[in-house]
Amino acid sequence: MGITLSGDQYGKAENRVVRIYRDTPRHEIRDLNVGTALRGAFTEAYTVGDQGAVLPTDTQKQTCYAFAKEKGIATIEQYGLDLATHFVDTVDPVSGARIEIEEYAWQRVLVDGTEHDHTWVRRGQETRTADIIVDDSDGTRRTWVIGGFSDLVILKSTGSEFHGFPTDKYTILEPTTDRVMATSLVAKWRFSTVYVDWDAVYDDVKTIMVAQFATLQSKALQQTLFAMGSAVLEAHPEIVEVRLSAPNKHHFVYDLSPFGLDNPNEVFHADDRPYGLIQAAVSRDDAPDAGPAWIPQRTWLT
Amino acid sequence: MGITLSGDQYGKAENRVVRIYRDTPRHEIRDLNVGTALRGAFTEAYTVGDQGAVLPTDTQKQTCYAFAKEKGIATIEQYGLDLATHFVDTVDPVSGARIEIEEYAWQRVLVDGTEHDHTWVRRGQETRTADIIVDDSDGTRRTWVIGGFSDLVILKSTGSEFHGFPTDKYTILEPTTDRVMATSLVAKWRFSTVYVDWDAVYDDVKTIMVAQFATLQSKALQQTLFAMGSAVLEAHPEIVEVRLSAPNKHHFVYDLSPFGLDNPNEVFHADDRPYGLIQAAVSRDDAPDAGPAWIPQRTWLT
Amino acid sequence: MGITLSGDQYGKAENRVVRIYRDTPRHEIRDLNVGTALRGAFTEAYTVGDQGAVLPTDTQKQTCYAFAKEKGIATIEQYGLDLATHFVDTVDPVSGARIEIEEYAWQRVLVDGTEHDHTWVRRGQETRTADIIVDDSDGTRRTWVIGGFSDLVILKSTGSEFHGFPTDKYTILEPTTDRVMATSLVAKWRFSTVYVDWDAVYDDVKTIMVAQFATLQSKALQQTLFAMGSAVLEAHPEIVEVRLSAPNKHHFVYDLSPFGLDNPNEVFHADDRPYGLIQAAVSRDDAPDAGPAWIPQRTWLT
Amino acid sequence: MGITLSGDQYGKAENRVVRIYRDTPRHEIRDLNVGTALRGAFTEAYTVGDQGAVLPTDTQKQTCYAFAKEKGIATIEQYGLDLATHFVDTVDPVSGARIEIEEYAWQRVLVDGTEHDHTWVRRGQETRTADIIVDDSDGTRRTWVIGGFSDLVILKSTGSEFHGFPTDKYTILEPTTDRVMATSLVAKWRFSTVYVDWDAVYDDVKTIMVAQFATLQSKALQQTLFAMGSAVLEAHPEIVEVRLSAPNKHHFVYDLSPFGLDNPNEVFHADDRPYGLIQAAVSRDDAPDAGPAWIPQRTWLT
Q: Which residue, among A69, A42, A43, A144, has the nearest Cα to A99 in the 3D structure?
């Protein structure tokens, strides 16, 4: 029987790198969770246990922390490009590298109405993410950058409908023309270039998505997601694909009629499970090939 | 052998009550996690299984949702007072009630620079809490309100020292005059009255604590906590006790010397476990008796 | 205004100590999560930032790991006694120490039907706990040991009733004579002595509690808890108090009638939140004073 | 600009279905977390909000609970096949369905040494999983079944080496010939048929993997994973591919030398983050096409 190894990658996940810039009294902070994954000619490590080609995951970790000083962390996209390029360029058996980064945002505290120089509270909203992939496996250098965020919890208390759906013998849902719509959005967008003002684009993409969510009279979460993705593609030529995954966090109108109380969409139970789950990709027709860009490391099999 | 039952309480934990105010196009939202616990003459339920005195926890749940409509949720403190008073006043065997509330804050999204009427994103920072206790067990009505927050993640990148400590044979820690200090603060403050502008006091207490954390040149997290609590007591005569629990979230200066790199407090590893844990109560000398106010429900035994 | 500091304690939480005994080819493993908390004359650290009396939490951590070698970990109770006694005996300003331990159980894997010498899988069930408190604050040495477990998830599919309860205007619950009863039990038991066969007692207490849960025809979770606690007190004279906290993990009979299906307690929805929460202490009438034994460290304020 | 929708799917995630079989006094229990995802001609829902083809996620939920009664849950694989086939066969616009199931195992409690008829404790170890995919999108019915488990926490205290690796300027790791190796394994295996004794194969696959982990003198986690996957393929002709993802849960030998203590691999610190992460697929050379089988629902974008 022939057995083939495929799709193997290895790395160091969840390096908690914090970088303080303190060249002036007004410090800056970057707070990251960094994962590295290397792909390449590692078959012998699997088949016979030969580590001769396996740069230790500990070394990958050291590199993450060292680069925070040597290269700095201007943006997570640039820092990820530095790391991925380094591994592919300098480590012989490595033909591909994937860097997955989460960034936790902080905001300066106000003291007497003034932003403090070196104290922050963590902004809890969405987590900014970046996936950077550099690949040499077919002899040609290719690079992908995917920006994104996870866990943007957003809710609208009206302006959402759901009706006109088909029914079968298991359908008891009542149609509605006014409901709460809430989600904890994961969004990722793929760039066709690395010449990007990463921070500015991030802010604008988030602004566009939030505005679409708020202003579209929604006939379904599907429609809202498509509108969010399309609006980003229309505004940002450097983005070629947007992927969205949105749990429908159900807010059920609570039945207060046993207590003689009317409840015109005022009191809700926020349920945990189950939840709807809506997912889609929206891409330009001329989007270049995504290659391995969408194959994750940390959640590869889960 | 004589066996005694004591400290029994029962209730419904984690009711996820969401209340939308939609009397005008500009909606308002209150998003709560509510727990109820009743104390009283319930011994027979334990000893012989007689439910004749046990108002079902399901009824407690229904009451939470019904009161969100009937009484409304102006503030979590007032809503909690309404619930606790109701249970003690109307349910015969109940001599005491405890209501524990967490409130998740939302902020309006901006669309074209303007706050939207009915769309919000969840502010992720601290969770506001309230514990309301009403007790009739000795024939006299007593009421306690404890305001608070949990999980305020705050960090200062300088202005913190730790030195001058004793050493023993297991001490290898080096003293430092400049370190990162970070915590995820839990704070609770006990009021001596219910005639309080709850929202205004909450905002001010948080502002005071944050300012103390930022501006005090700290010789230890202990000192910072004491300053935070004392400053609140000095500014708010209606508050008689402040309790604080602060994990010392260690940010270790990463050793970059093997790579020929200097690291003057610029690159850190944010470690998960273990962590220091510093706790204290700061109270007025003339604070009235706390009675059962500090005995929690959800974390009573954990 | 006079301000008083009280209840202060500090320590190192969640030290993840793993001890392998490898004196023979058949290894043994102890896998712990250890917290230390010291109480004593530390006021100056809070009020003026003087660390002269503050044994660093880092030192407490080092001691945990060093004692795993020096004293060993025969049982978590004995290891905790060693640590608590050490801190009170050898560190001058310390008048009290609290050690909180969780132990994760492992079981040997079977290879060809035989227990393997040095490979285990983690048993996921309940987590064994111990709280050890040594106190000298009034000049007399007192010691408390509390055994326990958390998160024993247990379910019975019949043999549980709930009826005969009072009703009010918010009561819509229907009485039942047959329901699923499930909980994730936290139990702690206080010893009056340290001369105990800790492992044997732990096993027996768990066995007794499980048997009571299984065999008692339950009229309420309250009754089941009381029976569990009482049975332990009756069988173990060295235990003087049992505390129990039990979420009522609701399994709702799913309404299949819209689909023309009968559902005689066969298909359930396991709901997350809210849940009932029932708590009580059962103690001997002649139980000695608990002192500070029940004041936790890690969950002191949460 | 042309914009294309792709990869869209929607469904109801995390239905917590519990099924009790009570035809005899000796009850049986199946405790599941079920997700459904449908693929097909849903473009109009995205582009113009037309729900005419969108079977509600609520209906999918109802079907999960109804099928627990109508079809029963003999195994999660069969139950998933019933659900997936139903959606593709009976709902017109649906051309593909994916069912993702987690099963929580319970074991009967012992009372006086005898297994109890209707009381269980949850076995906490690994969670058994199944992914069932039915696809008609190209006019031909294709079916895939993937068995698996997540979170099998397994540790060996010797029999693991790591040396012979390449070094660069960021490498400071020391080689070792004896270390603790621990992981929390996720494994999934793809079947080429649906005519399988699902429970028997599950048990045997787990047994094989555990035995390989225990007995192979490991030169790297990579080698161990490959051996585990290969051994499964060799023993089970009905399995054509095995995927494995294994965090290297680091157990660092604690440095006790400052305290004059030797530590020959006896005392460890179990670290949380970062962790190594090793992943690979092992497949037969003649494995049939996997189609969409490996594209997950719940973790599609995270």
A: A144
